[in-house]
Predict the structure.
Amino acid sequence: NENNNIPNRLLRSRKISAVSKFGAIYYVKHLQRLTPLKYLILRNIDKRNRDNIAMASSAPLVMRLVGSSIKIAHRAGNIIRDVMRRGDLGIVEKGKDDLQTEADRSAQRCIVASLSKLFPNATIIGEEGPSDLNVTEDWLITESNIDFLKKHKCPDAFVNLKESDVVIWVDPLDGTSEYTQGFLERVTVLIGIAVNERAVGGIIHQPYYEHDTGDIGRTIWGLHGCGTGGILPVEPPSDRFLVTTTRSHSNSIVQSALDAIAPDEVLRVGGAGYKVLQLLEGKAHAYVFASAGCKKWDTCAPEAVLEANGGTLTDMLGRHYQYGKDVSFPNSSGVLGTVAGVSHDDILAKIPDNVKQAMSMY
């Protein structure tokens, strides 16, 4: 009868927990002894999972992109921690001051394989180049963050978005040097969503962020017209002007820009994602990097998150970068980010001509 089909539906579902599957198996083996209460529990679990699957599949594309990327970035963060626990980082030097580890490679495989399965017609560009998409089942994340889908409405601008309009920029491990040198709190996973050349959505996951509860990992998201989540932004101090910049890629032009802005304190850290989080956490007013050292996968997600919270991220000449599928990868004109409430134009006006000339040569 219809009741007897319930455990079969449960067992076939890949979206239910191990506890749910155990309950379904118990029901099959002990059908005659199943109490009405146990039957109702199983039925409610089945209905809840079917409702969640229906919501995830029917939500507008941009909401599914963000909701799925939240889950995928979290899984990539687990992979990054797993590689570190094993101890063999598998470091490869891609170029001068440009390292790659097994964590970079494995996290990208997880991210790109999962996104490719869910959104086959979107363009996906990862820092580590083409990836082997034949991954183990536990690396293939196909569910979405239901809490995000339930609580947020799709912005009108994206209601009719098509997959072919989307470019996804992936930095599987932003801050590789920090990772290899033990500055683990600065490591992030970045998934940026671009539409019509602009960064509109982003996920920043911190695999090593430690909550007061002892839980590890934090995922921040941002979407234009929808706001941000996963973080409670804090205003920077009003009595000091703080700037965050590169830890390991400084030069005379970078220093010239910093000197002209004259901050009270300069924070030197690695990772574009982490620098933008410093802005959102009130630890800095501006992110200043007058150099060609970072690339589109470094800034797409951070730009979207920062601007979804009212801030601004441009090059050192005040121009937004373009994130279409055919653009060149380097951010040749540097990066200037400002938190909400700080005048981006005022800082741009302080940048000296020699810096502007150096940034406009590319």
Q: What stands out?
A: The domain at 242-359 is CATH 3.40.190.80 (D-Maltodextrin-Binding Protein; domain 2). The chain has a mean pLDDT of 88. Residues 121 and 163 are 5 Å apart (CA to CA).
